[in-house]
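Worked example 4.2. Below are the chains of a multi-component assembly; read each line carefully before continuing.
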Amino acid sequence: MKRRAFAVLALLSLAFCLAFPALRFLGRISVAGFRAGLLAASAAWFLFATLWAVKPKKD
Amino acid sequence: MAFKIATLAGNLDKLYEFDREPVTPDKLQSWTRFAGMFAGEHVAATEFVIGAFFVLHGVTARDLLLGLLFGNLLAVLSWAFVCAPIAVRTRLTLYWYVRRIAGPGLMVVYNIANAVLYCILAGAMISVSATAVGLAFKIKSPALTDVLPNSLGWVLIAAALGILFTTLAVLGFEKLSRFAQVCSPWIFIIFVAGALATLPKLGVRPDFSNFVEIARTKIWNGVAAAGQEKLGFAHVLFFAWFCNLAMHIGLSDMAVFRYARRWSYGFLTAFGVYPGHLLCWIASGIMVAGVGREMNPGAMAYEAAGLAGVGGLLLAGWTTANPTLYRAGLALQSITPNWPRWKITATAGAVTTVLACFPIVFMKLLDYVALYGLILMPIGAIVFAEHWILPRLGLEQYRAENRGWIINGPALSVWAATLVFVFLLPLHLYFKWLPGYLFAVAAYTALSALGRRTAPRGRS
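Applying the procedure described above to all two chains together yields the following structure tokens:
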């Protein structure tokens, strides 16, 4: 997979990390939903950001 | 004695040999690189505690916001107008510049002081992380006034975390540093996420229409917790200014700015301090209000953001304790020259682990941060005077280097006298450093002028 794809997925995960609390603030999701969503988005960030970081710059 | 100090200094020189020469023009870095680097700084586990403490110290919303805005501005200006210009002109680390000015012996003293202070700071980070682990084992977090450990469980958790962090630092500092870069943006997001998700619990409406009212009445309501001193605008302003005193006024960030193309890169520190020392402190203030103003970073993180919050707190503690342990080890290496890297890091880690068991290291974090800057600040004042003032007065620079002094007597006297001066000053701890700094600059300039008249060149 291309390095750029990992970067996009990592940034998308980070955006989800912000989206879940925003949805909780707006009252659209429950506390449990917010916590589970944030945890999943965080796991995705670590996965994709690590792959992004370790992948050599020239694929 | 002089021989022993010279040996210690020689050991230190070997350690820092790789950056003895000024940075060459081809090694200079762009402003974007600096902006990116600073953006990841200043988001540590201790931010969970500092912002919460402002709430417990009864700071009002207005005082907090204005204090942080202007205090951080003063910090940025200190980097830009004090630290960066000297770094760009000399292209040296503080280590080598102080060695020229104050002599290798004083550099050893400075390094040991730094090592001890680093260990205490890393201990505070481990303590903060321990509150997160304690939550899982239902171990009661220490109370605000606790100095000694409150239970065997707390000691076991703090010690276990200290040993874990130390072991990981021993196994691979470099790889952990790279992992810390991955963690850094996420930890910041966790602060923001935790605060945002806490707001409905405090009664903030989705359209933010009552946010100011809630902030004034339920978060920064101006009422100090029992046994906590009431702080105001000036305290917040000075705290935000001096919390990185050793780095800007104390000049230790010369190590970073020697790679800057221009001194104006100092302004780029705003990319770090405003997210870390404004947004994160505001976020942790909201989070502590969400747990009924109880100083328990673990509970704050869990209530605000669930397991991700606890993970954020642990990683914030780990990723910031790791380089702090490394720096402490590096500073200690001067007195343990034949020890391998793992042994030194393990020793620094052992000291740190013991300190982490004492809740006072994070319950008195605000005061410790003030003391940390205060102790190292006189060296920054001495370097400032030697670099800018002495040549303008026509006084000889770098006398310690020119005459081969092991210790620059006037510098050592000024350092000691400044600490006595600030100790005796009838001011709040937060306000002592500024008059202390001016005193140190004036005293060193006066002693240098006096020394020039009384001691002919070639004699010390």
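Take a moment to check your reading of the output against the notes. Chain B touches chain A at residues 178-179, 181-182, 185-186, 189-190, 192-194, 196-197, 199-200, 204, 206, 305-308, 311 (CB under 8 Å). The radius of gyration of chain B is 22 Å.
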